[in-house]
């Protein structure tokens, strides 16, 4: 028997493989499906069904890829929408995977047709709930995807789904949501990596509300919506293109890389320290740990992408981009940034300063422009006193707010987002930037006496 | 963060690795510790603590091996016994692994000092109970290890541990026992591979009892006790020898194998069909899937062991034997049984018959001796009408009950144990044996009209 | 830099990957190309060229698969034939792979357009000759593929290629042929796994001849030609179908397996001992070590194939079949033969006898029909005195030569081919067969006094 | 059969595993022996012999580790020295590994007792020469290890070994030396990764000499000798300590790392760009690609070593250090330099300048101190006009030659060694340093008009 979770890092997306007596099923597969195929084969099982909990908006679903590989039958939720593949699952519909019964439960709220799937143990007792984006560990699914006008409606639906359908299943049920901490699909998801309905009932803030209205007040919020969501939504209805083999990212010499630059977007996945040290003019800083979260915000699907990265990460980068549908991957710099500097090609730098250095310069000079690029909640939670807040994702529309005659210090919690902001600004022609390395965390850890 | 389970196949032993913020701990490690080291390293964590739930009797503990490799501090339960390593854990004692609090709960019954360890989530809420051999999925730990005279006493202790210490922790706690289905430490363990306290409260028979006495009536039983338990118990107090590198099983030519045979025990891990086809005279049939369960019953620690196996399984076999302390591994037959037959060396066979063939011969002849070698419970649950029951583990003491002048048909459920029985009897000189291939399962599946 | 050889086991096919400074090329790729892609990526190289030494007849070429994956340019030999892909290589044409110069040398004989490719070291000195099927270690390529009427013509061409083009390159050149020992493309290939032109000049029998005529006398022979060669030749001109992902072999329950049997061919890849013990009626015995060599002889491309195998070998079996173009793979028996016997389904057996048993029965009885199924050369080299010779591949056409009223003993060197012969005969209805386990090797190793 | 080469990267050390018919041998094993054990096991072979070509000076030999693991017999060369393990090989002594004959040939010169081992193919023909440090691809072993007074004597011995013992074996023999390009044991080794005696006879400069005297004139040179050679020589006579399991490098929080710093040496294995961006005060820059070559020059065996590295490289770093006997490995910074900067701890930087920037500043200012740290041959081969030459390994003894009142620009070919030099100088208190990123290669590639 298999009951296994897969985390797509960066997206914090969870998918699940179950298998029993030679049959297997995947819940919410990602697009690179090799792990499911391998694990199922190892257990001498074939994947005969795929269950989608909802039309996903933050990654491309792997259902069609699996269907092509194994002939599996695909069941999707949101039957009211116009899918070009698969079959809609009905509320109450049930299937057997070996001895394991799976039953669909309609739990609208995140989307109108969202489904949970309840798995029973080999003895037939309710056991595991695959809850999709209805209920997470410490949070619930966002209800703003259909727009502000339907926000309250969706929140009411979700309230009903959670309180009248999910929680009544009982404290002892193991809860398996579609996302973990770090997902854009739930900003307050906890790091309780495995959970139960009972733990959510007791500790999840959205389950503590006294009334439907209190739930709406707490949870019915318009959240950030990365522009790539639109593309995911469209492709997840059409069925993403089936490819079979993961694309290959071509290694490029500095010469070949340079030739492709005029038409391309350049993404540098090295860390803030390396990027600050030296980078290629015009490149964006997206550290590989945060690439999955930012690619969909700042990259254009229609232009080729060039990467500067640790060459050992090339395959991981392809996977990340493949999962969110970026197919125009032009290549990466062979032997990394060193080959570039050795070839004498043009470079740029971004000065890194420590908290103490920033602090000193603020004391003696005062002519800094502190630019806090964190999310609004973070900014409200405290920061440097005179900082101006422009969220990272809104910088391009607010360039005019940033002075060209001052030293600009982009700020964030640990320095990664501020380096991305700085790289965007540098590409737009801004000079005189300095980066607080380690971000506000470093500031707090230092003994700077300047008022935070 | 890591929260991961490891199954030692065949033993159905579960161990667990947890890690957070660079620190890691293992609960009930097995002796081949490479998996823990690798996974901890991958998470950039070092193993700083080992927690034992009790003095294990069915495998060798890896605590000393980890201590040697990482300098981890070892905590054991059963402090009343004379350990030569580590430190006793105290009831209520707590530790931090990163942000995860671990608290020891004294839950005697399986052994006098058995401990459970309750892990809290990063927010400090009770989360996961490592329950050792106190409570399994569908069963509870055996209470007969201290002998019949203390059977009831231990059962009372376990009743108290389960009903007054474990179940009160609440339905929503994830329950992580030390064994899964197939272990000799609990014959009724269910295949609900992950469970919660609530599911056990509702579905575990030992939790359904009305009173302490009912629990004792149900659960206070003397069970089979493989002879190797004694060795495990001794070594798990002394601390098993630390080796660092897993032993290597030498490939042997038929000539070299033959030279070592006079002093050695020969174990053939191929399946019943292959073993029946051809095997080396004197060898015991222990299919590799059941080897971990039978090695400790039928093999002698003091004599070297030779293996006939699929050569690709050689490392797995070393692991299996290493986990239960067999260190005198003399080698395996290079290129398997084929090299033996090609070299023209002596062989033996054991005839395989189908249910229909057996059925026919019983109708026409009647002079068969049907020898059912299953466990007593299985035998009572139904079998062939005229079969004589001698449990597999008691055959050697009951040789005189088996007639030499009849066709002997050892029987079991699927044919593996009966082939082991046949190989033992053949080694003891019995002839005229035939094997019902596929065992009673095959009989039931066929349309034999002879009364079962 | 990469200079690496890949062996396709069973076929004894060698392919080569070379890479330098980010560029890579493959010589004679097999159809499952993942190894080349992975190794090239690991070296930060992309495969920009594929070189074929000739139109292969014993496996499907992976050129089109690579072209699809990386956009590589494909160069083939035998430009006189009508390829549907790639570009013909010209004699003397040269390419650079990083600093490594590759030069084509026309060496006809095996096929009319066969090419060798001479690789120079980074300093420009001649270094390695990829010799395709022109010259092997200990043998030369077969010259009979265009039929008997062109046999001598092709042999003369090959003589010229070897003596006037290859050997003059000098003793110090490393020689990299397309096959190693065990290939059907050269029956005398030696186990000198790496060789040089000098070693072949000195030790290869085909290089020892005094004259062209002596070469023809020695080497111009019509050899066995498995029927699947025809299919390979056709597909290697058309370009084999491109698939991307390796097919998946479905695990089947005994019930599902049974349902598919009427339309299917059944191949059992277990060893002779297991197959003799128990097998499914109608199945052919092709031990997995010899499967690549026999599948093309005895299996039909148009009917689905079912496998009985060690489940851990399922992926290897897919690879083997995929390499020679068998795409109708219906599945394999989940959990192997044991699931079949446990389910009580019909089985058959084939008796295994030892040399001593056979010898005794020959002395006392004499009514055996000894059927030697080895190749003619082997048979001429010695065997059992009264054996009748019918080559394994000719048994089906010679069924009438095999008596139905005698005990038939198929014989070969080690027992694998004779078991295949026995399984064919059993499928055709012959009874009364017995197998000399270990074959004539076992006979020779025993002290049987009956005259060999 | 196995005939496989293993490269220890960075050291450019080659070792070899051979196996036939269940027996295996290793030539010049490295200390981390897991690869040999795994590959031998996979071929169903056990390692029964180890052959050393000479007492190695640049890495620790794995002979004792293998002896402990498999009971192999160890043969060493240099029998005149006082080994504490193994048995001396005698000139002409021969062994069989399956069908492969190995014969020892005394080839003094690199050391007095150096041995080559000639392997014959399965037919008994001379096939492969394991030449140790006698003859490389494009170079010969150094003859200066016994000191200047014996330089000529050793060179004469080596001349005799090469010309009278090795070359006469014939052009067609495959030559397998103990080192490839990049080794400190031969500065001119070519990138012809596989070679033959014939190719060396024709293309190796040391084989082109007209006379013994010409050989001496060309080759009898005192070369650089890293200080760790002495330790290797001693341990390779005593037998390096046997450990079984590779040590584990502990991940350390910034706090724990900081606590260990006062007693420790800090090595930063990130690239020049990252190191320049931010590093920990007092740390030495040794990029992981060059770590094996520099660790033995600049690190002290008696003080613990702390690493700043890509955490994914931690195991590789342990391997590198283990191979050259550094056992006091205190740990590495968990989550790398980012955790350090986020924690607000003190950092340092080293400015990176481009060739154009340097060029401009030289034109306008002229007050730069250009410090060329390359080897003397490289320096003589061309560089920046006004540069002062101090070899990297002699900087510490020549600190007084470096002005404190000028901008100091350490220079090397590509920027790695100059960054190491800069980090040493920074640790010694020098300020005002700037690094030409990409080194002289970048200079040459740019259009700087300042005279090179």
List keywords for this structure.
homotetramer, 452 residues, Metallo-beta-lactamase, Chain A, Oxidized Rhodanese, domain 1, 3 domains, six-stranded mixed sheet
What can you tell me about this protein's structure?
Four copies of one chain form a homotetramer. By secondary structure, chain A is of the alpha/beta class. The first copy, chain A, folds into three domains: 2-238, Metallo-beta-lactamase, Chain A; 251-342, Rhodanese-like domain (Oxidized Rhodanese, domain 1), CATH 3.40.250.10; 351-445, Oxidized Rhodanese, domain 1 (3-Layer(aba) Sandwich), CATH 3.40.250.10. Chain A contains 15 helices and 22 strands. The first copy, chain A, has helices at 34-42, 63-70, 151-166, 197-203, 212-219, 228-238, 254-260, 272-277, 291-298, 314-323, 336-342, 355-364, 376-380, 416-427, 439-445, and strands at residues 2-8, 13-20, 23-27, 46-51, 73-76, 87-88, 94-97, 100-106, 115-120, 126-132, 174-177, 195-196, 251-252, 265-268, 284-285, 305-308, 329-333, 351-353, 368-372, 388-389, 407-411, 434-436. In chain A, strands 1-2-3-4-5-6 form a six-stranded mixed β-sheet, covered by helices on one side. In chain A, helix 3 (151-166) packs across helix 5 (212-219). Chain A starts with a strand and ends in a 7-residue tail after the last helix. The model of chain A has no long low-confidence stretch (mean pLDDT 95).
């Amino acid at each position: 028997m298999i009951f296994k979770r897969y985390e797509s890092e960066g997206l914090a997306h969870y998918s699940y493989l179950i298998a029993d007596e030679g049959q297997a099923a995947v819940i919410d597969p990602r697009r690179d499906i090799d792990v499911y195929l391998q694990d199922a084969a190892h257990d001498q099982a074939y994947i005969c069904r795929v269950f989608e909990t909802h039309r996903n908006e933050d990654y491309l679903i792997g259902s069609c890829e699996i269907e092509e590989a194994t002939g599996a039958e695909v069941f999707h939720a949101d039957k009211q929408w116009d899918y070009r593949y698969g079959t809609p699952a009905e509320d109450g519909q049930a299937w057997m995977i070996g001895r394991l019964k799976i039953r669909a439960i309609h739990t609208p709220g995140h989307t109108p047709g969202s489904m949970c799937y309840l798995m029973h143990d080999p003895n037939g007792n309710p056991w595991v709930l695959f809850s999709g984006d209805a209920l997470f560990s410490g949070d619930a699914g966002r209800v703003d995807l259909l727009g502000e006008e339907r926000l309250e409606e969706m929140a009411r639906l979700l309230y009903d789904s959670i309180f009248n359908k999910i929680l009544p299943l009982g404290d002892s049920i193991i809860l398996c949501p579609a996302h973990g901490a770090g997902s854009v699909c739930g900003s307050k998801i906890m790091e309780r990596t495995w959970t139960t309905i009972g733990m959510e009932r007791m500790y999840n803030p959205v389950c503590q509300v006294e009334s439907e209205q209190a739930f709406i007040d707490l949870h019915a919020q318009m959240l950030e919506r990365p522009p790539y969501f639109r593309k995911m939504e469209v492709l997840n209805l059409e069925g993403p293109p089936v490819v079979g083999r993961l694309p290959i990212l071509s290694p490029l010499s500095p010469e070949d890389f340079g030739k492709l630059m005029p038409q391309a977007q350049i993404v540098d996945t090295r860390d803030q320290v390396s990027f600050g040290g030296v980078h290629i003019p015009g490149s964006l800083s997206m550290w590989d740990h945060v690439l999955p979260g930012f690619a969909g915000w700042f990259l254009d699907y229609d232009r080729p992408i060039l990467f500067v990265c640790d060459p050992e990460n090339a395959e991981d980068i392809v996977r990340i981009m493949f999962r969110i549908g970026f197919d125009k991957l032009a290549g990466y710099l062979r032997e990394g940034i060193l080959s570039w500097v050795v070839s004498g090609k043009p470079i740029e730098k971004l000065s890194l300063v420590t908290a103490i250095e920033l602090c000193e310069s603020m004391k003696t000079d005062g002519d800094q422009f502190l630019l806090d690029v964190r999310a609004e909640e973070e900014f409200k939670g405290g920061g440097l006193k005179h900082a101006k807040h422009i969220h990272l994702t809104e910088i391009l529309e607010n360039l005019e707010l940033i002075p060209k005659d001052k030293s600009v210090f982009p700020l964030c919690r640990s320095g990664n987002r501020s380096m991305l902001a700085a790289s965007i600004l540098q590409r737009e022609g801004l000079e005189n930037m300095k980066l607080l390395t380690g971000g506000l965390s470093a500031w707090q850890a230092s003994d700077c006496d300047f008022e935070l």
